[in-house]
Amino acid sequence: QVQLVESGGGSVQTGGSLRLSCRASGTMFRVHAMRWYRQAPGKQREEVASITRTGTSNYTDSVWGRFTISSNNAKDTIDLQMNGLKPEDTAIYYCMFEMGISLRTFAWGQGIQVTVSS
Predict the structure, then answer these.
(1) From CA 11, how far away is CA 114, in angstroms rounded?
(2) C-alpha distances out from residue 7 to 43, 46, 95, Å
(3) Can you list the pairs that 58-62 forms with residues at least 24 positions away whose Cβ atoms lie under 8 Å?
(4) Model confidence over 66-83: pLDDT tens digits?
(5) Contact present, 79 and 62 (Cβ < 8 Å)
(6) Over the stretch 44-67, which tens digit does the pLDDT of each residue have?
(7) Using CA atoms, how far apart are residues 76 and 70, in angstroms rounded to an integer?
């Protein structure tokens, strides 16, 4: 059993910043990658950022240069620092851990709202 809990969401104006955190608890298998997704109303869920076990990070083009993903050494927490927020960043944000030794397992957070007003 692995539980992911997101925190740090809220409402800000254009240009503001937020820092999302995702903390995993329970029995953790080998973590291969950790990701942030988001889903805006009427749109498909998209991957925002990812970081591998070895620390390699990737970002979707729309957040490049504004968002930063990070993880701790224990690989049980990821953060998403969001700067220069825009209204189009408004969405529910979800964290996801990809884990497994012999099986690939995906654990998802419950989602947290980020709202950016004009």
Answers:
(1) 6
(2) 23, 19, 10
(3) 62/88
(4) 999 999 988 899 999 999
(5) no
(6) 999 999 999 999 999 999 999 999
(7) 11
